[in-house]
Amino acid sequence: MIVLFIKARLENVAKISLPLGHTYNLTVKDSTGEDTREGVTVTSTHEEELPGSKGSANFALKWVRDSKHVAYLNVKEIEKELKNKSKQKITGCYTANDDGNFVGLVAFECRGLDVIGWQPEDGFIVESTSGARFEDVDLSEKEWMDYDEKLGESIGIYDLEYKLEGVKV
Are 28 and 72 contacting, i.e. CB atoms less than 8 angstroms apart? Predict the structure, then answer.
């Protein structure tokens, strides 16, 4: 599994999450070669049949047109804490208690390809410390600010960073 971890600095934000079925914008690489594809969009709600198999995947491709092997990826959304051998925190959401630390949001099960990049976009759900909810938040600029009427103060997400790491579960 390749896990997408994020880290950010939060101001009056209690929680950042992504809805189930979110579309991820990824860069993938052939696990046995140098070929890469940017701008690959994947979601857990899309299913495609794998040729020559009874299985399906959320995304599939052939790196070489005449190849008999299909590379594929499945999105594994995390609804409760995922236990892993490296003991990294993988909870599916980022909270105020995680401020400044990497936390896993989603996992990708890959065969024949590796996820090597992610481009944050819109779709994030942000909850403020007052309980106000902001939906479809765009983090493509790696920061976001707004005003929380309930709290009477500004809220924000700053210095968003990510890393992708292979994790054994």
Answer: no
